[in-house]
Design a protein that fits this description.
The chain is of the alpha+beta class. The protein is built from 13 helices and ten strands.
Length: 305
């Protein structure tokens, strides 16, 4: 009979950040001796990484670095929010964003195929998975680069779940200086309001046609006559563009102006002009199918094996 229970597995997991099954195996191998189990896990090393590679990683954090004329943002996924708050995970995220920034990487594949600290990044990642105790994924990367006439800024929400990079082209360096701070506010706006596109030009034609069809069906259900639909539809599409493009959204800090007007006004204050040219928004885990798990139930289930 095992000399440990679910509470011991939970305690060992909290002590070592190792996976639950690894903790169970460690306690089984050491007859419930907590200190010996910790040593068992340490000796296990890289063997833990492969077993966790098939685990769904939909939590984690958005990391970002902006300096001079470059901004880089990375989504790094873990299996649980608990691990994402762990100091080891945070250290890994910081090292990865620094590595990506210094090397100018723009894709996750470039990071995976690179070298860090004298070893292949894939090996370094495997070590982190074994140490942290969960599957980790470098899911996606965004990079914006500019010059003296391009201002770049961004924002990561306090919980690390949303990150935004934005850039504006400026008439001169003075305008860029003024606009850079304004862009931080624009990034905060985008984090909250989630515009789908930068501007009208960025909206695919098929999206506009789909919205027209949806609006047409809605109007018909409302009993609007067929012969007046074409007069109403332009207004519906205009509203869609106002709601879904960053430039045309009402600015959250001053809803009397749009985001585009806010940027233009910021540059105008120093005698220049500016306009938004790039916008990238990451929301943690979007598009990843998440598996809801009850930790206590999972422990009890594993204890029966």
């Amino acid at each position: 009979m095992a000399n440990f229970g679910p509470k011991d597995i939970k305690k060992l997991r909290e002590m070592t950040d190792a996976g639950m099954m690894d903790c169970k195996q460690a306690l089984s191998a050491t007859d419930g001796d907590m200190e010996a189990a910790v040593e068992w896990l340490r000796k296990k090393g890289l063997g833990a990484a492969a077993k966790k590679a098939d685990k769904v990683a939909a939590e984690g954090a958005i990391a970002m670095k902006i300096e001079d004329h470059r901004g880089v943002m990375i989504e790094i996924n873990s299996q649980t929010d608990f691990v994402a708050k762990n100091d080891k995970f945070q250290s890994f995220a910081n090292e990865t964003i620094e590595h990506a920034f210094e090397n100018g990487f723009a894709t996750a594949q470039e990071i995976i195929e690179s070298e860090i600290k004298g070893q292949n990044f894939s090996e370094y990642l495997a070590l982190q998975i074994a140490t942290i105790g969960e599957n980790l994924v470098i899911r996606r990367v965004a990079k914006i680069e500019g010059n003296d006439n391009v201002a770049i800024n961004g924002y990561v929400h306090a919980n690390g779940r949303v990150g935004v990079l934005v850039a504006a082209e400026c008439e001169n360096t003075d305008a860029c200086g003024a606009v850079k701070e304004a862009l931080k506010n624009v990034a905060m706006h985008a984090a909250a309001m989630n515009p789908r596109y930068l501007n009208e030009a960025a909206v695919p034609a098929e999206t506009i046609e789909k919205e027209k069809e949806i609006a047409r069906e809605q109007l018909l259900k409302e009993g609007k006559p067929e012969n007046i639909l074409e007069k109403i539809l332009p207004g519906k599409i205009k509203r869609f563009l106002q709601d879904n493009t960053l430039e045309n959204q009402k600015f959250v800090m001053d809803d009397k102006i749009t985001v585009a007007q806010y940027i233009a006004n910021s540059a105008k204050e120093v005698g220049g002009s500016a306009k938004l040219i790039d916008y990238i928004r990451f929301e943690l885990g979007e598009g990843v199918e998440k598996v809801e798990e009850d930790f206590a139930a999972e422990v009890a289930k594993q204890m029966q094996k």
